[in-house]
């Protein structure tokens, strides 16, 4: 690139730009096909109580069952979906998956909740609320078993828009969780405004303690959640020592590879996650 005036390298640069555009175009087409043919599914990661280690709920995480490339994680498709205005379709499909599961679990496991992630664009353009309302009615769900995970950066963009959306979600009776807390740029005063039910502590804070033994931020964040009357959920617990430490700090719930990874439905059933 430094010698862009030089013939061959300019051609090379153009080529790679073109192939990048082609790659993105093909990916977008494949995503659209996938959205229209049910290739986007939910993986469910169990969430446990820290003290009793009992199952309390699941987080639904989007996966793409790609016909050639196999099972793909959100990093492979969410950025482009957000950029190309396709994310609201994913949100609606995830809501549909979750509603179906909640309804099939509600007789035997009425206390379980399922949470799912919203995108910043869902808050700016909240077409999903209508879908959510109709799913709750159709399946006769208890709205308080549905948790919507939002990030602080998602609210930063436009509070004027976000505020009435959060109001209508509250009116519906669904719960709100503040995801990846502490990794964005918002000020603590957002905690008052958002008034979320749950606080999810990002894995990076647990990892920092594991790596360095420095617990100052982790401790403070757990205490902040407790003081705000929020249910504190620690994300990304990989080691027994981490779980023991969180118990000491008073975190109420956790999810992490230590106990369970996100699983597709057949695996959840095969491994008997709902029978225990
Ligand atoms: P997130 O909401 O913070 O989800 C937690 C992520 O941490 C998941 O990654 C999960 O697999 C991973 N995780 C859980 N336990 C552990 C652990 O012990 N160790 C490690 N290293 N990782 C752990 P995943 O499924 O790749 O999702 C990444 C992100 O993609 C999510 O972060 C969320 O921001 C986004 N995402 C996932 N599904 C959706 C969706 O349906 N809609 C939207 N808008 N975003 C989604
Ligand atoms: Mg999440
Ligand atoms: Mg998170
Ligand atoms: Mg996270």
From TrEMBL:
Location of the EAL domain: 24-276
Highest taxon listed in the record's lineage: Bacteria
Protein name: Histidine kinase
Species in which this protein is naturally found: Lacimicrobium alkaliphilum
Coiled coil: none
